[in-house]
Each structure stands twice: as C-alpha cells, then as structure tokens.
Specification:
Blueprint: H1 2-10, E1 15-21, E2 27-33, H2 40-60, H3 64-88
Antiparallel strand pairs: 1-2
Length: about 90
C-alpha cells in the first residue's frame, strides 16, 4: 500500500484524505487519488480505438460502404476535437 502511495506521489497524482467510520465505531483515515481530467491525447486515443473496433466489425461483415462511412465519421470527429482543443488554448 505504501509503495503504491509513493508511486502516486512520484507521478504527481494528488491524494485526498478523508475519515471513514466502521460499523464498530472505529475511525480510519483513507487516502484516494483525486480524479483527473483525461488529456487531449488520451481522448483522441479512446476515440481512435472505438472507431477501429467499429471498422473491424464492418470489415468482418464485408460491408465496405460502412467501412468508408465509419472512416469519414472518425476523421470528422477527430477534426472537431482538434478544433475544440485549439479554441480552448
């Protein structure tokens, strides 16, 4: 447990402490990582993986028209995300 906490600290992950009381009345201090927003690169990777799965499924079904539609949809979504990223900077 201590090793894991050290790794979190070394990687810059913030920890949140709070007290938990058990049914028997004992109180313990618990530390959990603070949830972090995904990076832009992580969002793009998730998008890419989801669309790759859709493309593989369409290819397995032999639907080339669907493959092309999904590829076009992926490129559009990626461009939209990139545009949002540029606007947010």
């Amino acid at each position: 447990m201590e090793r894991m906490l050290r790794e979190y600290e070394e990687n810059g992950i913030q920890m949140q402490e709070f007290e938990v009381t058990t049914d028997s009345g004992k109180t313990h201090v618990v530390r959990k990582p603070v949830p972090q927003e995904p990076t832009f690169e992580q969002l793009l990777e998730v998008l890419k993986q989801e669309y790759l799965k859709l493309i593989r499924d369409a290819k397995d079904l032999g639907d080339e028209e669907d493959v092309l539609r999904i590829q076009t949809e992926y490129r559009t979504k990626k461009q939209e995300l990139e545009a949002e990223q540029i606007e947010g900077e």
